[in-house]
Automatic annotation (TrEMBL):
Protein's name in the database: Uncharacterized protein
Example GO biological process: glutathione metabolic process
Domain GST C-terminal: 88-213
InterPro entries: Glutathione-S-Trfase_C-like, Glutathione-S-Trfase_C_sf, Glutathione_S-Trfase, Glutathione_S-Trfase_N, GST_C, Thioredoxin-like_sf
The organism of origin for this protein: Chrysodeixis includens
Subunit structure, interactors included: Homodimer.
Every GST N-terminal domain range: 1-82
Alphabetical list of Pfam families matching this protein: GST_C, GST_N_3
Single annotated GO MF: glutathione transferase activity
């Protein structure tokens, strides 16, 4: 019986869940939620998830949300071994730390810097850009001496982090300044199961958003030129 995934196409956290499910060879029933239309505020959705956040899964009557929590749940319940989510206490702690770093720092700072720009047309905030770039520097340091985010194997930490980093392809952030991140990014793209299939449509949404943002910024710059 497939697991229901309530998602919004283009959402990095939703991509995380799909990547983890693919790595576990799980079937998902994808249910697209129109947040602009208020689907996440309907009574049936609130009954399942009172926080009305996305993604949410429903697994045989059990609902859970928060993408990184979902990743842990799926790996714990359906993992055939402990490769994706190590059983070793110290390795698991490192995976959890990377997941928390993505949630609380990398993805949060990405959202704080970019989302106001392509949702409200706000100008780029240099201070927020600096903080986000600092978080990329921290990720680069994490990856020093490691093949993957933790050790030599793909884990759910990689699948969470890559969903955030993949979004940068369409914005003016040069990953060449972070060589460990760039090397790791290429590796995960080539080894995460169904990476291209899962991310292609989501990244197309971001590609259009980035193009619209750049066009808007160009128009504002032209309008501000002295005449």
């Amino acid at each position: 019986m497939p697991i229901d995934l309530y998602r919004s196409l283009g959402s990095g956290p939703c991509t995380v869940v799909q990547l983890v499910a693919a790595a576990l060879d799980l079937e998902l029933n994808l249910i697209d939620i129109n947040v602009y239309g208020g689907d996440h505020l309907k009574p049936e959705y609130l009954k399942m998830n009172p926080q009305h956040t996305i993604p949410t899964i429903m697994d045989d009557g059990f609902s859970i949300w928060e993408s990184r929590t979902i990743a842990r749940y799926l790996a714990n319940k359906y993992g055939k071994d402990s490769t994706l989510y190590p059983a070793d206490v110290k390795l698991r702690a490192l995976v959890d730390q990377r997941l928390d770093f993505d949630l609380g720092t990398l993805y949060t700072r990405f959202s704080q810097f970019f989302y106001p720009q392509f949702t409200t047309g706000a100008p780029a905030d240099p201070a927020l850009q600096k903080k986000f770039e600092e978080s990329l520097g921290v990720l680069d340091a994490f990856l020093e001496g490691n093949t993957y985010a933790v050790g030599d194997h793909l884990t759910i930490a990689d699948l969470s982090l890559v969903a955030t980093v993949s979004s940068l392809e369409f914005f003016d952030i040069n990953l060449k300044e972070y060589p460990n991140v760039l090397r790791w990014f290429d590796l995960v793209k080539s080894t995460a199961p169904k990476y291209e299939e899962i991310t292609s449509k989501a990244l197309e949404v971001l590609r259009r958003a980035a193009a619209q943002l750049k066009e808007k910024q160009k128009s504002c710059s032209t309008a501000a030129e002295p005449r």
